[in-house]
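Much of what follows relies on a compact textual record of a protein's fold. Think of the row as the fold of the chain written in a discrete alphabet. An example makes this concrete, so a full record is given next.


***
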Amino acid sequence: MAEPLRIVFMGTPDLAASVLRRVLEWEEGEVIAAYCQPDRPAGRGLELKAPPVKTLALEHGIPVFQPLHFKSDIDVMLLESLAPDYLLVAAYGLILPQKVLDIPSRMALNVHTSLLPKYRGAAPIQRAVMNGDAETGVSIMAMDAGLDTGPVVLQETLPIAASDTAGIMHDKLAELGGELLIRALEGLEEGRLQSSPQNEAEASYAAKLGKNDGAIDFSQDASRIDAIVRGVSPWPGAFANLVRDGEKPLRVAFVAGSPLNAPAADTRPDTPTGTILGLTDGSTAVRCASGVYGITTLKPAGKAAMDAAAFANGYLRGHENARFCLPE
């Protein structure tokens, strides 16, 4: 029986850990080392927290390395001394220089959660949902020194359902990513697969999300708002300022709802966007540029999450002109 392929895995967050878990099950390979980002402060106490890949690797007795970058010759030489056949990369968080990509005897492969060349970059899952795409997928890419620019070895699509959030799609794509990576490895080893260059004319970039990406502007169509709210769930989360006569603006966070059939109050053409029209089908109905968006769960700043009826009783009673606005 041939010796198992020597694999160095590189990744950091939960998605990468899911992929690593599948690689560890592959009998034709042996993960000899794992690389991930350094431990970071987390929580209210800002205590150092190990990345999910580190935790999983240590559970399996795999050595873990956490360099800040590969600018140091020592870090490059250490990786070279491991003599890997493959570098397998998923959500590592570093752009690897060519001198690192040249180390494996076979190839450096990356698991990217989009249909490349679409959505290169840091937030492909979120941007696909936010843009209302009907599908996304996973690409297994032979890495080069660019940002997700290498030739594609294998690709598979995955539909985005009307109720899917970025969090739901993250979990689906993480599972698919692990399976597709193993299929790519087996296909390459058997000589059945060859990489194909990406079409640069079709390339797009998925910029990293910031906290302000969750600010919801109700002067857009209800369907557009729904896509954005689902795309920023669970992070950074959707929010807007509740504006009421005689009250200070109150920040309110909310989870994904859905577009509604227009309540009777929405027949008035002069109703400003963001106006809260009341309760409809158990949702807080909000006027949009076109249509109405219904929110089922809301969380005022400093308070626990509550359903639409409790929110109406606690925050809308006596405020007929209450509306949601962008935070200033």
